[in-house]
Amino acid sequence: MTRVFNFSAGPAALPEPVLRRAAEEMLDWHGSGMSVMEMSHRGREFIGIAAKAEADLRELLAVPSNYKVLFMQGGAIGENAVVPMNLLRGKSSIDFVDTGEWSKKSIKEAKKYAAVNVAASAADTGYDRVPARAQWKLDANAAYVHICSNETIGGVEYHFTPDVGEVPLVADMSSDILSRPVDVSKYGLIYAGAQKNIGPAGLTIVIVRDDLIGQALPITPSAFDFKTVADNESMYNTPPTYAIYIAGLVFEWLKERGGLAAIAEHNRRKAAVLYDYLGTTAFYNSPVQADCRSLMNVPFKLRDESLDAAFLKGAEAKGMVQLKGHRSVGGMRASIYNAMPIEGVQTLVAYMKEFEAKNG
Ligand SMILES: *Cc1c(COP(=O)(O)O)cnc(C)c1O
Predict the structure, then answer these.
(1) pTM value?
(2) Looking at the structure, do residues 163 and 241 belong to the same domain, yes or no?
(3) What sign does the CA torsion over 209, 214, 219, 222 have?
């Protein structure tokens, strides 16, 4: 068996110990005589699995008790509609900060349900930064302020939590949730698709403050009304049971590694291996302003694009896959989520140096 260094943006690499444990437990979970995939979501075993996953997630993120943790489906793109449906609360407009492709998608979807005010945008500088908080033109009557904490495609990440006053702050954290500690109390709502830093695709996590739920638009499908989901402990309809189980194993793995402060330190050191090298060469360059660079998704370009295909082919031959940048921006992108070991990034940088020496 050979495992590659998988730099995919998502679905992404999972920790190997998690996959091994899932394999061991595949046919007979803890003497139940069945796979987790075959269990009733209302049975004692699965209810225990889901409760443990929620408790561990709450512990990792120190989620305050006045917040609900919901296990949903539909992905982050689904939440782009579900959040406005639930959080307008009689208001008519939403503030957005536009930092790239995922912000733009959120804005487009929200326009179906509300007026949208783009309070700040980095479009005019090619999405190379988070606009400084002082430049945001917020509306005190907005239902909420939406940000994307990490632009997975552009590699732009917030390294601060913006203060937006009394208006609830909503964050799409799909690609940096659990990569570092977060003060959940500063947010009204956090959502994330699981397939980047949590577990398998199909599970969507929503963390929402109690007082914001219960006023969904009447057209909201019951399965996506946060109140219905919360009142039924995420079992109003059948949840993605196997994805919740794997996410639970990832939470246990994170706890064993010392929690989010420890993983954040590891992530900083890991990303620095790549960014430090990018700072020393003109053969490659990073398109993002230094203080907004993502620790999870590192886009970089070869000075000479005509070498892109050879670069990718050589990487693959050395067991490094999925380094091609998103089609909308081109170049390369190394996604280095929690599960990527530092050796993966060291191997990549060694290869980049070798490639530069040969072609520079
Ligand atoms: C991947 C991603 C999405 C899309 O999520 P789906 O699960 O495909 O709906 C949305 N936002 C961000 C920030 C992402 O990284």
Answers:
(1) 0.98
(2) yes
(3) positive
Q: List the catalytic residue out of 196, 270, 301, 324.
A: 196
Q: Whose CA is nearest to atom 7 of ligand 1?
A: 75
Which residues constitute the domain of residue 307?
259-359
Angle of helix 241-256 relative to helix 16-24, nearest 10 degrees, comes to 130
By alpha-carbon position, which residue is closest to atom 5 of ligand 1?
A: 76
pLDDT tier at 1, thresholds 50, 70, 90: confident
Nearest CA to ligand 1 atom 2: 174
Q: Are 61 and 184 in contact (CB under 8 A)?
A: yes
* Spatial strand order in the sheet of 297-302: 284-285, 297-302, 332-335
- Residue 95 designated active-site: no
**Which atom belonging to ligand 1 lies closest to the Cα atom of 173?**
13
Does the residue 240 lie in any domain? yes
Quick one: 76 and 176 in the same domain?
yes
Say whether both 277 and 215 belong to one domain.
no
Measured CA to CA, the distance from residue 19 to residue 200 in angstroms comes to 11
Location of structure tokens 């203060």: 163
pLDDT digits (tens, 9 = 90+) for 320-344: 999 999 998 899 999 999 999 999 9
Helix H or strand E segment including 272: helix 259-278
